[in-house]
Design goal:
The chain is of the alpha/beta class. The structure holds guanosine-5'-triphosphate, magnesium ion and zinc ion (ZN).
Length: 361
Amino acid sequence: MNRAKRNARAIAAPNLPAVPMSNRRLSDQQRGRIKQRQNARATRARDASHDPQPQQAESLGAERHGRVICRYGNSADIRSDDGEIVRCVSRQNLGALVCGDRVVWQASGGEDGVVVAVLARKTLLSRPDAGRQQKAVAANIDQIVIVATGEPLPGRQLIDRYVLTAESIGITPVIVINKTDLLGSQANTGLTKHLQAYRDIGYRVLLTSVKVEHGLDDLRQQLNDRTSILVGQSGVGKSSLVQALLPHEDVRVGALSKAQRGRHTTTTSALYQLPSGGQLIDSPGVRDFGVWHIEAERIAHGFIEFRPFLGTCKFSNCTHSMEPGCSLLEAVAAGQVDRHRLQSYQLIMEAVKEETKDIFS
Ligand SMILES: Nc1nc2c(ncn2[C@@H]2O[C@H](COP(=O)(O)OP(=O)(O)OP(=O)(O)O)[C@@H](O)[C@H]2O)c(=O)[nH]1
Ligand SMILES: [Mg+2]
Ligand SMILES: [Zn+2]
């Protein structure tokens, strides 16, 4: 496939136009850096003991930085820091690339490139797949946007699992309730009450509707200048939100799904460039989000409002379910901790016990 076609396909094509290499203007600093690398490579090439394949390395273009916008098996589309989108294969020794990875790549002649290095990941969101293997979802994200719908009321279990996962990798989550156009006024009141617990903890909760274009400016602002990922069940409107924020993109990266009655369902994570400078990753919907990989002691810490009470129960191995002298039960009775959140914690602990029992038995 040629590059023009590939860009037209617009898998996460950014708003920046693709810049042909020959038109690129390099700053003196960039030129200096490239020269330095070329000198280093030339030195390596003279000393074959440092580089067993100097000829092959020499045939590649200069090293450039970029970000993985979409991964396909062993290859990936990389958005170069200057806006160009290039399909690259990955050197085998690098391991699997993940959407959001920051990489070093080199043009390999023609239109394609080779990823030669992956920069250390600042964060990595992963989840257990059906086979209980950790599956990487996205790398280098600063914000997890949990998307749910208002009716039926969003399941606390799934939201709390996402909140816990985000906190366990040091990221503050944001909750977005989409499709508010479908809510009657009664449902709206119920929803507001339902979500108050999260606002009380300090989490941002946004209400949006793609259909009537409600709340999109708030969401846009929330996404400014950082890398965010939209997560949540299938059909809640994640891709529709991306499309609403980027009307000139073709966001339908997923295949038409028979199971979803002809609706497009996202099958792989993809990163989009927002006009504000932020980057947004759309991810495939999930039915459940396993958390058994998070150590049991860290689960309570993932409920951030529990933290002041942890370690203050009468029994050091308190399960916070019925023990006398449990600080968390007392906090619930005193209205300092939401009882649904404690219930959610208990259900997660039980589920984790069951899930790990299955694995190790
Ligand atoms: N009424 C209404 N429908 C919406 C809204 N947002 C999305 N939809 C519809 O909900 C359906 C699912 O939307 P998608 O954006 O594909 O959902 P998704 O979360 O990306 O789903 P997966 O890719 O399967 O995870 C589509 O038919 C959308 O048109 C909204 O705000 N209001
Ligand atoms: Mg989708
Ligand atoms: Zn306790």
